[in-house]
Predict the 3D structure of the following.
Amino acid sequence: MEPVSIQCRGNRVYRFSPASTALLAIDLQREFFTPEAGTCVEEMRAILPRIAGIQATLRQLGCRVIHTRESYRTDMSDVHAYRASLDYVGKPGPLGRFCILGEPGHEFVDEVQPLAAETVIDKASFGAFYNTALDDLLRADGIDHLILCGVTTQCCVHSTLREAVDRGYWCLTLADACAASEPGLHEAALQLIAGEGHLFGWVADTRNLEEGISEYGGHG
């Protein structure tokens, strides 16, 4: 059967087979969507209905959906000295200690909760591959194509994207399903993906994804 074809920025096309593709929903935890998280909270919250929609669409299509969280132990023993110097992990806030396992803010936003059978990757890092089982899980399932969404575009999304590309995954970043906490960083991060001959894969909007799937002969 022909693959799904998605029209992307730069007059490019991203093609994938559902059986070998996973959606990575990156760090959609409650604490990243509060007013304390940055100056672009409304822009960040605006991506949640789009992500909920593509999660449902890709589940129906037969793609795997994987969720990540930036997570640290309660005793912060997995916070290295440099990260500790950034002074955000464990910082008290309205939803508990920031990025700490078990705190209220560490839970997923209601609109994009994982299904019971879906994988959750807790990572003591920005990138989802560092010191986690993600690569092994994907390879065991024959997955070599990744669709990325989540927050923040310039940090955990971009870190995960770069790690994935270095490991040989074919990556599509959904521009309007990602967001940054500060003005300008979102578009700058998207431009980096396209730089030097599209080093870091493909960029499209959720509309392009939905249109490509609706035209896919095997859908439904």
About this structure: The mean pLDDT is 95.
